[in-house]
């Protein structure tokens, strides 16, 4: 116990400043009214859906909650069910085997809702493209508000995408 | 086993690893497998190919470990099936079913004839990896069904191909038995797959996996690429193992082209591979602590991992080291200053990991969850073919870096981490030991990194050349089997993840445990969905 407590004190607080929203990431002009966005700011719940990624994007989503980025410290947290979520964070090209599951998850998410597509695959289909097994980009299957490029995008870029989706257009 | 024991004509393939290739007939196919099994060898991978466009039929291939290296046998056949070997190697079961899903030819008389990678996305009479496979797939944007009625239609789970994905799970009957279906979309930030638990009270009587949700046509995609383009895709088969796949891919291409990269490139590849191993073990150790309710562990290990990834980005231009390896060599060099920073950083990290190991070892609550949980006994591991780090935690003493060390590993006498308990605690211990061993290897690499070129030109291999890449990634051995096409093309490529072998063992590991321990057991294996579903 002594070592544990000492290590906590020695480590100190590592959290760095969060990124600013970036309008260039927006795919669809705001679908939600500004007043609603104000509710989301500071208390947003996210359901992550891997629709066919290589797992690289998941690694970076995990890292958003490490002590440096501390996404939860901004009042943004991941939840276990789409029914509890305000936002879907979708990675990967959408594999055809995940198409139905993704649509159902979207349907199960209560309105008003937001969708952020993560990674080059989520933005364009990436290296996997469209094929007998892949539907390509996320917006081919469900509506997307913000798309974050990168392979995989860094935790800062992912956070920027999330913050852009809940920010009012300047 | 000596190669002379096989009554097969074998030809060594050039390249970094000791690999022999030979054609067999149906009888030899089973005999060779049985011989390998009798001598304690394992099935590393099984895959199919289609030669009908060049006057042949189909073929099935198996990669087997023998005393002197890897034996790759190929069975060309003209009928609709090949002899089953799942009685010899239980791990062959799902691989053979995948061959049927993708080529329409399967293992004759195999006990399990269910589909595996096939769901309902493409029609029942389409076999995507056949050379003549072509069918109109719906342009996905046409499927934007967002009005309420259409939403109901999707809920019906009937797709445009008109099939339903009614996978026949094995049902457990009896008083008080009930099922818990989980997935494909899971509660955490992890990959999709379906788990069907049959339980009584809290105890798990049976777990059955249904995978294939992430199948996105990787093998077919390779066939549309040149050898140079394929490197990028290989590095994205399973993102957490990008270095292992990229190296295995490069090895396969270099083997087909009959060339060897310069020494500095090979040493740098080993440096990248060990950095990837450390990064993954750090993350997993954090999540394992968290799954046993020690949030402290997650915060501490993810902090270390973040520092490690930032170092990767600063020195190699990518946090996960994607696209740093290409056929012929490596794409990034390190400077003497970079080496000094790395050395200093490793020293500090090693001290913290040792301290955290002390905290984990002494934490009664944590050890109570780890010890005896999710156990695979050594004899089961051996019989069912458990591999990689999970295998080593169940006394399967196999680590390619020690067994058949490619340059530069031969210089280091890699110390393999093995344990006998086969529980979560053993898999945690193996991870800790492998971090320390990787740090030792990294120091040796930095001390003795040869000077010289980073890459050599790769000559165009003739069409039909074979190449094998075989690399001990952090999860286990990754294999790439390549056959070249004309003009630097790829005729057939099969990437094989060790998760194929280990997924069925996860079903076993949870038996008799309680459902709430499943996330912990699952994490202790941390298997790949993407690398398996392809
Ligand atoms: S964007 Fe890159 S890291 Fe993310 S899923 Fe696609 S290939 Fe993997």
Please describe what this structure looks like.
The complex is a heterodimer of chains A (170) and B (534). Chain A is an alpha/beta fold and 170 residues long. Chain A has one domain (41-169): Rossmann fold, CATH 3.40.50.12280. Helix content of chain A is 31%, strand content 14%. Chain A contains six helices and five strands, in the order ααβαββαβαβα. Chain A has helices at 2-11, 34-40, 56-63, 99-108, 119-124, 155-165, and strands at residues 44-50, 76-78, 87-91, 114-118, 146-148. In chain A, strands 2-1-3-4-5 form a five-stranded parallel sheet, sandwiched between helices. Chain A is globular, with a radius of gyration of 17 Å. Chain A starts with a helix and ends in a 5-residue tail after the last helix. The mean pLDDT of chain A is 89. Chain B is of the alpha+beta class. Chain B has two domains: 3-108, NADH:ubiquinone oxidoreductase Nqo5 subunit (Beta Polymerase, domain 2), CATH 3.30.460; 218-525, Orthogonal Bundle (Cytochrome-c3 Hydrogenase, chain B). Chain B contains 17 helices and 15 strands. Chain B has helices at residues 26-38, 92-103, 148-155, 218-222, 227-234, 242-257, 263-291, 295-316, 336-362, 364-370, 378-384, 388-392, 400-403, 424-448, 499-509, 518-525, 530-533, and strands spanning 11-13, 19-23, 43-50, 58-66, 69-77, 81-83, 106-108, 177-182, 194-200, 203-210, 325-326, 329-330, 466-472, 477-484, 490-496. In chain B, the strands form five sheets. A five-stranded mixed sheet of chain B has the order 1-2-5-4-3, with helices on one face. Chain B has a three-stranded antiparallel sheet with strand order 8-9-10. The longest helix of chain B has 29 residues, at 263-291. Chains A and B meet through helix 1, strand 1, helix 3 and helix 4 of A and helix 3, helix 4, helix 8 and helix 9 of B. The complex binds iron/sulfur cluster.
């Amino acid at each position: 116990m002594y070592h544990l407590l000492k290590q906590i004190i020695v480590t100190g607080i590592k959290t760095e400043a969060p990124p600013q929203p970036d309008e260039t990431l927006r795919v669809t002009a705001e679908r939600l009214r500004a007043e609603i966005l104000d509710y989301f700011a500071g208390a947003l719940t996210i359901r992550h859906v891997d629709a066919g990624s290589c797992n690289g994007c998941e690694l970076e989503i995990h890292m958003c909650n490490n002590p440096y980025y501390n996404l939860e410290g901004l009042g943004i947290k991941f939840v276990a069910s789409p029914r509890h979520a305000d936002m879907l964070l979708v990675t990967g090209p959408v594999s055809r085997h995940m198409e139905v599951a993704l649509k159902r998850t979207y349907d199960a998410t209560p309105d008003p809702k937001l969708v952020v597509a993560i990674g080059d695959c989520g933005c364009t289909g990436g290296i996997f493209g469209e094929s007998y097994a892949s539907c390509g980009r996320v917006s081919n299957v469900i509506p997307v508000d913000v798309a974050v490029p990168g392979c995989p995008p860094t935790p800062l870029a992912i956070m920027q995408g999330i913050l852009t989706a809940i920010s009012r257009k300047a | 086993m000596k190669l002379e024991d096989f009554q097969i004509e074998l030809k060594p393939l050039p390249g970094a690893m000791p690999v022999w290739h030979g054609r067999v007939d149906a009888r030899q196919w089973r005999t060779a497998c049985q011989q390998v099994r009798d001598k304690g060898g394992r099935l590393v991978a099984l895959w199919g190919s289609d030669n009908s466009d060049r006057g042949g039929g189909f073929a099935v291939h198996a990669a087997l470990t023998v005393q002197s290296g890897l034996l790759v046998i190929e069975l060309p056949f003209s009928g609709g099936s090949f002899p089953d070997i799942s009685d010899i190697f239980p791990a062959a079961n799902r691989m053979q079913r995948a061959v049927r899903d993708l080529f329409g030819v399967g293992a004759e008389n195999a006990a399990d004839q269910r589909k595996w990678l096939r769901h309902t996305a493409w029609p029942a009479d389409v076999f995507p990896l056949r050379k003549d496979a072509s069918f109109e797939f719906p342009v996905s944007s046409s499927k934007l069904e967002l009005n309420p009625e259409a939403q109901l239609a999707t809920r019906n789970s009937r797709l445009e191909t008109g099939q339903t994905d009614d996978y026949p799970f094995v049902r457990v009957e009896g008083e008080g038995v009930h099922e818990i279906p989980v997935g494909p979309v899971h509660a955490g930030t992890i990959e999709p797959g379906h788990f069907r638990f049959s339980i009584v009270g809290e105890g798990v009587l049976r777990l059955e996996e249904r995978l294939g949700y992430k199948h996105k046509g990787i093998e077919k995609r390779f066939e549309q690429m040149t050898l140079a383009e394929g490197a990028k895709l290989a590095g994205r088969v399973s993102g957490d193992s990008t270095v292992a796949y990229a190296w295995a891919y490069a090895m396969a291409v270099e083997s087909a082209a009959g060339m060897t990269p310069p020494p500095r490139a090979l040493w740098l590849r080993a440096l990248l591979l060990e950095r990837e191993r450390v990064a993954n073990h750090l993350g997993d150790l954090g999540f394992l602590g968290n799954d046993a309710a020690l949030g402290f562990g997650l915060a501490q290990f993810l902090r270390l991992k973040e520092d490690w990834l930032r170092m990767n980005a600063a020195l190699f231009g990518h946090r996960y080291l994607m696209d740093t390896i290409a056929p012929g060599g490596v794409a990034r060099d390190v400077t003497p200053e970079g080496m000094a920073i790395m050395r200093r950083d490793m020293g500090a990290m090693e001290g913290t990991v040792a301290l955290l190991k002390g905290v984990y070892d002494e934490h009664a609550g944590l050890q109570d969850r780890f010890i005896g949980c999710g156990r695979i006994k050594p004899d089961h591991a051996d019989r069912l073919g458990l591999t990689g780090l999970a295998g080593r935690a169940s006394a399967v003493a196999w680590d390619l870096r020690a067994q058949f060390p490619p340059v530069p590993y031969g210089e280091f006498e890699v110390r393999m981490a093995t344990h006998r308990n086969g529980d979560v605690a053993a898999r945690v211990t193996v991870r800790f030991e492998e971090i320390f061993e990787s740090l030792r290897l990294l120091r040796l690499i930095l001390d003795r990194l040869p000077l010289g070129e980073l890459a050599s030109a790769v000559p165009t291999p003739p069409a039909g050349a074979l190449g094998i890449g075989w690399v001990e990634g952090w999860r286990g051995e990754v294999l790439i089997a390549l056959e070249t096409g004309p003009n630097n093309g790829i005729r057939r490529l099969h990437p094989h993840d060790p998760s194929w072998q280990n997924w069925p063992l996860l079903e076993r590991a949870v038996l008799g445990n309680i459902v709430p321990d499943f996330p912990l057991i699952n994490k202790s294996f941390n298997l790949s969905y993407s690398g398996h579903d392809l």
